[in-house]
Design a protein that fits this description.
The chain has 249 residues and is mainly β. It is 10% helix and 24% strand. The chain starts with a helix and ends with a strand.
Length: 249
């Protein structure tokens, strides 16, 4: 493990301890525990697959990592559940690589990281040991006093916005990449209560005007059970869903 990445792990652990102590009585453990002030769209065009994430402990991306409790990972898949065609080591073989990433709502850009390289695709779903940063290239947008969205693993050099810039819902802000702690190209998306990447708490994201459907080939790509009835709520998404904004093809 390289020194820079080890430093990232230390930051993540320190931030988790800080958030756990600071928000001990404000920790959110369900969608009912948070009322959003902003309407959010999916941060991409077309139909993508929700490979990780949900609003309950059973479906959570990473329940015990507070910033990522309600986070999502999105990829694009074919009818058989494959996320690429051709050489699995070639980033351009992945359907989502290089696709436009959109602002999920109006806001002001507060953080931009745009200089990390894409990571290599490793064998056995391992992450690249030379990864210099967990989140990779990323954008954090402030939408209201206590609502910030974070979009991670972006393509190096693809970010089109600057810190302090105002964005509108649906603006193209970057392209999907493979930077950061990732096994393959995908978009990591989360809503959080502060601009601190490591020291925040995650918030449930209520999406408006979206279409969602269960992926018919779910069990070809995922051994985890599909979410139960108690894991599902209107306007929220969870792993196993194909999702898109209304009006997208």
């Amino acid at each position: 493990m390289n020194i820079r990445f080890l430093g990232q792990i230390v930051l993540q652990v320190t931030g988790l301890i800080y958030a756990t102590v600071k928000y001990r009585d404000k920790e959110i453990d369900s969608a009912d525990g948070f009322v959003p002030q902003t309407e959010y769209s999916l941060p991409f065009d077309g139909e993508w697959y929700t490979i990780n994430g949900g609003i309950t402990k059973n479906t959570s991306h990473s329940w015990d990592i507070l910033p990522q409790r309600f986070a999502y990972d999105f990829i694009i898949v074919d009818d058989e559940g494959g996320s690429y065609h051709g050489d699995s080591k070639d980033l351009h073989s992945y359907y989502c690589y290089g696709k436009d990433i959109l602002a999920p709502a109006d806001g002001i850009v507060v953080t931009v990281k745009n200089s990390f390289p894409d990571c290599r695709i490793m064998d056995g779903e391992q992450t690249d040991p030379d990864t210099p940063d967990i989140g990779g290239n990323r954008i954090i947008i402030k939408h209201s006093a206590n609502e910030y969205s974070t979009l991670c693993h972006l393509m190096p050099g693809s970010i089109l916005v600057k810190k302090g810039q105002k964005v509108k819902r649906g603006d193209v802000i970057a392209k999907c990449g493979n930077s950061g702690n990732t096994t393959e190209p995908h978009l990591h998306f989360q809503l959080q209560n502060t601009a601190g990447f490591y020291s925040c708490i995650g918030l449930p994201v209520h999406f408006t005007n979206i279409h969602k459907r269960i992926f018919n080939s779910y069990y070809k790509v995922d051994s985890r059970p599909l979410p139960e009835k108690e894991d599902i709520a209107e306007g929220y998404i969870y792993r196993g869903l194909l999702v898109k904004n209304f009006g997208d093809n």
